Model the fold of this input.
Amino acid sequence: MKFTKDWLDVHLKTNKSESQIIQKLNNIGLEVEKVEPVKNELSEFIVAKIVKANKHPNADRLKLCDVDIGKKEILKVVCGAPNARDGLLTIYAPPGSVIPKNGMKLEVSKIRGETSYGMLCSESELKLSNESEGIIDLNDKYKTKIGKSFFDEKKGKNVIELSITPNRPDCLGVRGIARDLSASNFGKLKEPRKSKVKKNIKHNLKIKIEKNKNQACSIFGSCIIKNIKNTESPGWLKNRILALGLRPISAVVDITNYVMFDLNRPLHAYDLDKIKNKITVRNSKKGENFKALDNKNYTLDKDMCVISDDEGVLGLGGIIGGERSGTEKHTKNILLESAYFDPAIIRKTAKKLDLKSDAKFRFERGVDPQSVNAGLDSAVELILEICGGEVSKFDVQQIKKFKDLEIKFDPKMVSKTIGTNIKTNEIKKILLNLGFTVKTKGKFLNVKVPSWRPDIFGEIDLVEEVIRIVGFEKIKSIEPEKKRTKPTLNFFQKHFHLAQRSVASKGYLETITWSFTDEKINNKFKEKLESVKIVNPISSELNVLRNSLYPNLIFYLEKNLNRGFGDQALFEIGPTFTGKKPGQQITVVCGIKKQSIDEDNYLKKNNLVDVFHIKKDLVQSLTELGINKEDFKIDENTPSYYHPGISGSIVSKDGNLVLGHFGALHPKIISNTFGFEIFLENLVNYKAKNSKTKESLTFSDYQKSDRDFAFLVNKNTKAQDLTEVIQKVDKDLIKEIKIFDVYEGENIPSDKKSIALKVTIQSDHKTLNETDLTNISKKIINTVEEKTGAKLRS
Amino acid sequence: MSDFEKKFLEFKSRLNGTQDSKEIESIRTDIFSKNGFINSQFKKLGSLSENEKKTFASNINKAKQELLEIFRAKATEVSDKDLNEKIKKEKIDVTLPEKEFKIGKIHPVSQVIDEISCIFSEIGFSVEEGPDVENDYNNFTALNTPEDHPAKDMHDTFYLDENMKTLLRTHTSPVQVRTMLKGKPPFKIIAPGRTYRSDSDQTHTPMFHQLEGLHIDKNINMGHLKGCLNYFIKEFFEVDKIKMRFRPSHFPFTEPSAEVDIGYRIEKNKIIIGEGDKWLEVLGCGMVHPNVLKNCKVDPKIYQGFAFGIGIDRLAMLKYGINDLRSFFECDYRWLNYYGFDPLDVPTNYRGLSK
Done:
């Protein structure tokens, strides 16, 4: 919403300055977004310099000039003036500007095959003089003004732009802003002028609102004005229209726009002579068609609110008028409409047709239903003053009654809500100044809501009105109490936090990537999950919710590779989606690691990243999260996006919960890259179920002994199975099993491998003697051979 | 000179004369082993008279003691000499690079969430969470945003079905609804998380982070809201004083509603928070609307309180001088390294928020 101080003065008698007003507006909830110098009709005409006047290739008399208008780019402008020459300072008119002399609107056009961006002007074209020979020749003083407007903007006059919240349609008119300011002790709201216009002629056009289902129009007020001269608007009106950022068109159109911004009261003017017979406000039929004032054709759905005559649709009620009945310069007789349309239906129709207009913007937020006559009065007065003519009596068709809401208001609510005491008298005064009527009834106030405030429903809305005007700075701040009754983080959140820092401490950079991804990439990772599609994605590359963290991580890893970073470890902790219902999501920690192949580097030579590096990162993090090695086992089954031979899963001891995966990613997806996933909910649930209180520490001081074994086993025998079998031989005596060598090759059958391990044996009760040790060793060998088919290597 | 003395002197001079660790070892064996010099002398004691025995034994012991001392001194001397020679040969160019290590980093958004949690923890808030996918009831309706309310214009929402019933939450406010519906007042929570709007340009990303705050009890008023936010902003920016302004605004789920601006100035292209005559909007807040409380089965006649919503990414940008919101999600290796935080740098109450 835009306005100027002098426009505000029409409604508000105030001695406050513009800057005081701006500050006040911010304080009462009418946020000032911008303050800019007023633009006038001529601001677009800019001082420019002809850098070079080239010959036009196809016309002897024309020149193709390179013009500097103070921007980065030099423009090409075709010019026929004999005085166009290199270095000339002149005035440039951009495409879209209107030449004052003839009212011609400039467009980018081709002149004899060369495109011309705008025009260089003569004095007569700008109505500066009658000089039309050649273009303006400015003196050197203007050298420093290239790119600046030639006609000085009026100093000290500003357009104030407000960002009005959707609950305050009344402030989409200058009068509403004035009312709020007057309620804040910033002046006195002026009484509206009483109309003195005589309404002499007959309103002889039949108007009917059809009682359709969901009829959007409940009031249609109108009058006829005959014998007008639809001229150009006078200067003051043009300036106000320009201040709004609109272009003056004709007096009638400018006046309807003016009243809309003045009173938040949209109006529409029809050329009366173009209306066939009568006006019917009705719901549209499917497929009805009309050309709107924006020069576009619209095909309507069923049940949109249209204003029609016997020939068809004239316009979309409350949104946009039609071209067929539009006013023109030579229009003599008009019908002026002031109606009320239902916000929700307007909104729905405009959304469906993707139509925006200032009227629609206001009707969908709520226009004062009691302002039908005031709007007509205000416009009629101006039209008669500027265009002459005679006006009819007002015809108001109404199919619904509007009743002002009454609220029983306990003024104590104010201090209860804000914590600071405000006297009832002050509350009453504020509400009165905002246009409410207030009657005291015992401890309560009976408050009647003015018809222009569709946002006020109950007591709390009145509290807001009061505190808004009193000022938030009056609320006394209360220091927060430093007291904690509940833990800040719950069990899961603690593990989230720990997992994040644990993985980062292994050298991984934390990333945050979109929760959505490209379906094509996601498909490689979704396994049995369904794709969760976004109906209105931001782009086709971000069209599904991610089923895995890998697609985005790999995408960005590759981007970094292209930037030249070969060694990378990235991770993310965040949601992946298992379905489209709320809650169908899990928290995953996913790390990904790639090492550039640089075997010449002496530091890396024996330390290339392999699956056991990634396994180490994962297992170490699990350990830090409180899941110890004896709590899980490794399973060879992994999702298809891992290399089937070089990957594993971490599962709970009972095999029921998958805590994570690790391994080389499938070479078809990305080569030579390793990754891991941790499923945090599973991990936390598992830990919660198996949480043991830490026993007090005991350790044996008796001598411990190591015994080495080397077993020849089948190639597909897993080391994990071997150690498990050994562990079970004697849980008390066997303290540790360490694999120290795995060997395949010479001296070993090709379907076998040798696994060498060191078993640490220690008793908690005595020093084991040679016989004890021999016995347990024998037992180990026998059990292993029996259970796994292994043979001890001699 | 007795044979004993002769031998003694011979060993003494042998020890003194050597510089070789192996020879020292062999001399040690000759003197102190089972059949060495000392033991063989003691064996002679048996054939001596009591008187001679006493004198001779004392002589042997003296000799043993002296030889032991010489031996020890010599052994130390030689081993020191050997070590020194060895060390001399062990010169390594220590300017060669160390074994490679990688420092991981915590994303600034995560760090800021931890900082914020730390601050609110101190004044008794606990952390709640909600799902990223929400139904339209929790995201809009329960929060007093009716079907056709123009406030929906501000939310260009990602929908997961044509009927517009499931969506990606446009703010963290649905966590308020979930928290109140599953528990009993009082409520004192913050809820950080991902939020989504169909918006993408210089200053908007389709996903961003918000922090919701909610404090509902009997008698919680706007004074508490002011105090709470003032405390938070001061702690977060780690300044003693902060210029703050509450501006009335409108959100469907709070009434009265306010936007909060903080004062700042620009100095040498850097933004200085807390002073100056420019204003920067940092958050929205207000008293929870009675309709929201009703929708969440909380009696607004007994309970009232405040809620606020903070843009986490924006706070991170302000505190750590990051210019481009989009860079948060572009995962540029250099950016992550530069703006990321050491994982050991955990914000705490006692050590302070930042290093």
Chain B has two domains: 3-89, 108-339. DSSP finds eleven helices and ten strands in chain B. The mean pLDDT of chain B is 90. The longest strand of chain B covers residues 254-267.
